[in-house]
Design a protein that fits this description.
Layout lengths: L1 E5 L4 H12 L3 E6 L10 E4 L5 H8 L4 E4 L11 H22 L3 E7 L16 E2 L12 H18 L4 E7 L2 E2 L4 H11 L10 E2 H13 L5 E5 L11 H8 L4 E2 L12 H7 L14
Parallel strand pairs: 1-2, 1-4, 2-3, 4-5, 5-7, 6-11, 7-10, 8-9
Helix pairs in contact: 1-6, 2-3, 3-4
Length: 280
């Protein structure tokens, strides 16, 4: 299948592009910067905030994976994060609709629920979070991801394509885990992440599953690792952080996200855990 992957040079995007190539798909990667040396897909360096460029590059796609975005609301002006992510989402969705692509897969985020960049703790109704939990973004990034889902929904409603929005926590790799998660644990801010992560290889597999899943309309699906990134049982962490919130069973080091919808809709089952990463 001919797949256009936006944001293909980033951490998530390059894992997704490599997995798609390995699965036998014809991949065009589009990013504002070149991919790592030795990447196995065709690449175009382009600015997709220009609708004309997006239309030109997506016109032959059978499927589109939209990953390109400013990935956090820190270090950039909030207005720039919002404007850039909204322009990217609109242009790529519109170009995909006009190209006749049949499947659109959108890289959404658990930030639609308010984490981790909130000003006030989100109104948490229950744990673990499932895909029926109300959204509640507070920051420019989370808001852009939520409105991106709504753009996808609008295109699906007019019959443009079928779609899957993959809601992901912090994407990790064995190489980067210790350097990122170690300081996060030490800072005391791990609860802002709901102690959650996803291995980039599992995220890439979810995109391929979303490509083939028998979805009608627009499926919004939470994916994550099966476990938290902490060494303390999840139920104990949740009891301290959310003493007045309804908590369903989260045995052992279970994720704070309910993956049943991902299993039903995509056949998704996380296979990688930081507990199996090399220690040196």
């Amino acid at each position: 299948m001919r797949i256009v992957i936006t944001g293909s040079s980033g951490l998530l995007g390059r894992h997704v592009a490599a997995a798609a190539v390995a699965a036998g798909h014809e991949v065009l990667g589009v990013d504002s910067v070149p991919p790592p040396a030795g990447s196995g897909w065709r690449h175009v360096t382009a600015d997709l905030t220009d609708l004309g460029i997006a239309l030109q590059l997506v016109r032959d796609a059978e499927a589109v994976f939209h990953i390109a975005a400013i990935p956090r609301p820190t270090g950039r002006a909030a207005a720039e994060v919002f404007q850039t992510n909204m322009a990217l989402a609109y242009n790529v969705v519109e170009a995909s609709a006009l190209s006749g692509a049949t499947r659109f897969v959108y890289a959404s985020s658990f930030s639609i629920f308010g984490y981790p960049f909130f000003t006030h703790w989100p109104k948490q109704l229950y744990l673990p979070i499932d895909d029926n939990h109300p959204a509640g973004p507070q920051d420019a990034y989370g808001l852009s991801k939520w409105l991106g889902e709504e753009m996808v929904q609008a295109a699906v409603a007019r019959g443009a394509f079928t779609a899957v929005s993959l809601r992901m926590p912090w994407v990790q790799t064995p190489e980067g885990f210790a350097g990122q998660i170690g300081p996060r644990r030490a800072s005391g801010d791990a609860g802002r992440d709901l102690w959650s992560y996803i291995d980039a290889r599992d995220a890439a597999e979810a995109f391929l599953l979303a490509l083939q899943a028998p979805v009608e309309g627009h499926a919004r699906v939470m994916i994550s690792a099966a476990d938290s990134y902490m060494d303390e049982p999840t139920a104990e962490l949740a009891e301290r952080a959310f003493p007045n919130v309804t908590r369903n069973p989260m045995p052992g080091f279970a994720s704070t996200f309910d993956l049943d919808n991902a299993r039903r809709t995509l056949g998704y089952e996380p296979r990688h855990s930081w507990r199996d990463y090399p220690t040196s």
